[in-house]
Specification:
By secondary structure, the protein is α/β, with parallel strands linked by helices. Helix content is about 40%, strand content about 15%. It contains 14 helices and 14 strands. An eight-stranded mixed beta sheet has the order 3-4-2-1-5-6-7-8, with helices on both faces. Strands 11-10-9-12-13-14 form a six-stranded parallel beta sheet, with helices on both faces. Strand 3 and strand 4 form a beta hairpin. Helix 7 crosses helix 12 and helix 10 packs across helix 13. The longest helix has 19 residues. It is globular, with a radius of gyration of 22 Å.
């Protein structure tokens, strides 16, 4: 988006959980605002030096929290100090633990936008560190607390329809800005050069049903599951004990350029997110994995939650299946391995859909329009 001629207005994004180069916060939202003429600061919680990257000022707490108490108390004190020093017109928050900081800066006359990436009250129901008998109560208390804070802010943002619908009950100025990918210039889609491989790159955890995928490929001949990303050692050891692990090419965490190479050499993208946490059978647009595979020109095998199923069926770019059924996973993989032309066509369909509609430029327009509307309201002086 071209930069507009406007008085330079300072805006500040704040996160205590996400990394300074987070794809949604830094690479999409902050860069889009900077390119549109806003002066952008991003406050982060790490021990790296302050810096300026692509016109965005990155300011760190320089703290290394040892536990939840440190993060919730010491970090918050430092965050407030940095927010005050930044003296921005708009503050945009990204973590539920920052609700109190958002209310604090709002009382000082600043505009506040709160970005709800996930349905936290629903996630609480699955937090193992909260005693099971207490989870419903904690979830309810958080929901009341969230509703109270959300009603005071200038705008709310979320990534998926169901959360937006819920938040609008607290604040009418709620919009959906989905985490679609930034379209790359080059995308490999030459199926004649591809391996008989399925792939996944990202956080390797139980929610992606890797154990079921490995069991599904155990009896498939001449196949490899290319698996890249960070994981807890305990979970990897569990996967290594499964029949089928000998067909896994585990690469660990890789730079993004290497991830693209994996997509280019693979035939199928696996995105079997289970129904736990906030996903349920409704699904979410907050996770980019489905769209990453589509952008790579890969046919996808994804969970049959409502949102993803509608996308793959409408665009004929993959198969949506029940994520916990090993036999169904196996049949879906074999379908693509045995029908190369169908796999190629579905990959091309997915790539076209990303270029046409499921891309960040469509969301950037909404983000900048939201900011323009928020800053058009006179600033309160307190």
């Amino acid at each position: 988006m071209e930069s507009k001629q406007r008085q330079v207005i300072k805006v500040c994004h704040v996160t205590t959980v996400h990394s300074r180069y987070d794809p949604r916060i830094f690479s999409k939202e902050c860069k889009s605002l900077s390119n549109s003429g806003y002066e952008v600061t991003l406050i982060v919680n790490d021990v790296l030096p302050d810096e300026s990257v692509d016109g965005i000022r990155l300011v760190s707490t320089h703290l290394n929290p040892r536990n939840r108490f440190d993060r919730m108390v010491k970090t918050k004190r430092k965050i407030r100090k940095l927010m005050k020093q930044t003296d921005a017109r708009v503050y945009h928050f990204h973590d539920p633990e920052l609700l109190s900081e958002a209310c604090w800066i709002k009382k000082k006359g600043k505009a506040v936008i709160f970005d709800f990436h996930e349905d936290v009250s629903k996630q609480i129901l699955f937090k193992i560190w909260i005693p099971a008998p207490m989870r419903k109560l904690v979830s309810y208390v958080y929901r009341v607390y969230e509703r109270s804070g959300a009603s005071r802010f200038d705008a709310l943002v979320s990534v998926t329809p169901k959360i937006v619908e819920r938040l609008r009950k607290s604040n009418e100025n709620t919009i959906m800005i989905t985490n679609f990918p930034v379209v790359r210039e080059e995308t490999g889609n030459d199926f004649s050069q591809k391996k008989r491989a399925v792939c996944f790159a990202g956080e390797i955890s139980a929610q992606w049903n890797h154990d079921k995928i490995i069991r599904a490929i155990a009896s498939i001949e001449d196949i490899v599951y290319i698996l890249a990303g960070k994981s807890h050692p305990t979970y990897i050891e569990k996967l290594k004990s499964l029949d089928g692990w000998e067909k896994v090419e585990y690469l660990g965490r890789l730079p993004f350029k290497k991830v693209i190479e994996i997509y280019d050499e693979s035939m199928i993208g696996m995105t079997l997110l289970n129904y736990d946490n906030q996903v349920s059978d409704e699904g979410t647009l907050g996770n980019t994995k489905l769209f990453e595979f589509m952008q790579a020109g890969l046919p996808v095998i994804c969970s049959d939650n409502k949102i993803w199923k509608e996308i793959v069926e409408e665009n004929n770019c993959g198969l949506a299946i029940y994520p916990d059924d090993v036999e169904e996973i196996k049949k879906a993989i074999l379908y693509f391995l045995d029908n190369i032309d169908a796999a190629r066509q579905m990959g091309e369909n997915g790539l076209k859909a990303v270029k046409d509609k499921y891309n960040w430029s469509t969301q950037e327009v909404k983000l900048v329009k939201l900011y323009d509307s928020v800053v058009s309201v006179p600033e309160k002086v307190k």
